[in-house]
């Protein structure tokens, strides 16, 4: 399988719960390397731009409000099949439907506050990584 990069966000609920390290540990234990990382407080404009594809959805205002409610940790994960591997580790969007042992099953409390974001395809990963990181901020080993 190809080495890929994916964009991951630890959302405000999980940062507030102090489980950033536990979530990073799951990435590392499953063959994903953190090759870029930063903690940021998203502005409304930055959050709206990130979720622009959901602009017309009824949950969009609540999603932007939630994503700007506190700091997030944004990271680039690299590894074999990183996009799908990260989605598997995250679990379903709605934590009530997430498989046991996934990040969302263990740390998320609702579909709104669902602990993590992960790119859903290699193409969206490239766009999302460039939205947060300059090329010289990414440090592959
Ligand atoms: P994903 O994060 O699992 O890729 P998406 O469908 O891309 O899910 O939705 C982006 C985010 O929007 C979700 O993580 C969740 O926080 C929020 N969201 C998605 N669907 C709903 C919904 O039906 N109600 C409330 N929030 C939603």
From TrEMBL:
<keyword id="KW-0547">Nucleotide-binding</keyword>
<keyword id="KW-0460">Magnesium</keyword>
<protein>
    <recommendedName>
        <fullName>Nucleoside diphosphate kinase</fullName>
        <ecNumber>2.7.4.6</ecNumber>
    </recommendedName>
</protein>
<comment type="function">
    <text>Major role in the synthesis of nucleoside triphosphates other than ATP. The ATP gamma phosphate is transferred to the NDP beta phosphate via a ping-pong mechanism, using a phosphorylated active-site intermediate.</text>
</comment>
<feature type="binding site">
    <location>
        <position position="114"/>
    </location>
    <ligand>
        <name>ATP</name>
    </ligand>
</feature>
<dbReference type="Pfam" id="PF00334">
    <property type="entry name" value="NDK"/>
</dbReference>
<dbReference type="InterPro" id="IPR034907">
    <property type="entry name" value="NDK-like_dom"/>
</dbReference>
<keyword id="KW-0963">Cytoplasm</keyword>
<comment type="similarity">
    <text>Belongs to the NDK family.</text>
</comment>
<comment type="subunit">
    <text>Homotetramer.</text>
</comment>
<feature type="active site" description="Pros-phosphohistidine intermediate">
    <location>
        <position position="117"/>
    </location>
</feature>
<feature type="binding site">
    <location>
        <position position="59"/>
    </location>
    <ligand>
        <name>ATP</name>
    </ligand>
</feature>
<feature type="binding site">
    <location>
        <position position="93"/>
    </location>
    <ligand>
        <name>ATP</name>
    </ligand>
</feature>
<dbReference type="InterPro" id="IPR036850">
    <property type="entry name" value="NDK-like_dom_sf"/>
</dbReference>
<dbReference type="GO" id="GO:0000502">
    <property type="term" value="C:proteasome complex"/>
</dbReference>
<dbReference type="InterPro" id="IPR023005">
    <property type="entry name" value="Nucleoside_diP_kinase_AS"/>
</dbReference>
<keyword id="KW-0808">Transferase</keyword>
<feature type="binding site">
    <location>
        <position position="104"/>
    </location>
    <ligand>
        <name>ATP</name>
    </ligand>
</feature>
<keyword id="KW-0546">Nucleotide metabolism</keyword>
<dbReference type="GO" id="GO:0004550">
    <property type="term" value="F:nucleoside diphosphate kinase activity"/>
</dbReference>
<keyword id="KW-0479">Metal-binding</keyword>
<dbReference type="InterPro" id="IPR001564">
    <property type="entry name" value="Nucleoside_diP_kinase"/>
</dbReference>
<keyword id="KW-0067">ATP-binding</keyword>
<feature type="domain" description="Nucleoside diphosphate kinase-like">
    <location>
        <begin position="3"/>
        <end position="140"/>
    </location>
</feature>
<feature type="binding site">
    <location>
        <position position="11"/>
    </location>
    <ligand>
        <name>ATP</name>
    </ligand>
</feature>
<keyword id="KW-0647">Proteasome</keyword>
<keyword id="KW-0597">Phosphoprotein</keyword>
<feature type="binding site">
    <location>
        <position position="87"/>
    </location>
    <ligand>
        <name>ATP</name>
    </ligand>
</feature>
<keyword id="KW-0418">Kinase</keyword>
């Amino acid at each position: 399988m190809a080495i890929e990069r994916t964009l991951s966000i630890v959302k405000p609920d999980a940062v507030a719960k102090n489980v950033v390290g536990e979530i990073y540990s799951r990435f590392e234990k499953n063959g994903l390397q953190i090759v870029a990382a930063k903690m940021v407080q998203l502005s409304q404009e930055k959050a709206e731009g990130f979720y622009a594809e959901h602009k017309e959805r009824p949950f969009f205002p609540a999603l932007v409000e939630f994503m700007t409610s506190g700091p997030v940790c944004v990271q680039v994960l690299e590894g074999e099949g990183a996009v799908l591997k990260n989605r598997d580790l995250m679990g379903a969007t709605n934590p009530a439907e997430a498989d046991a042992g996934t990040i969302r099953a263990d740390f998320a409390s609702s579909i709104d506050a669902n602990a993590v974001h992960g790119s859903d395809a290699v193409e969206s990963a490239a766009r999302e990584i460039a939205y947060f990181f300059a090329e010289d901020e990414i440090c592959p080993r």
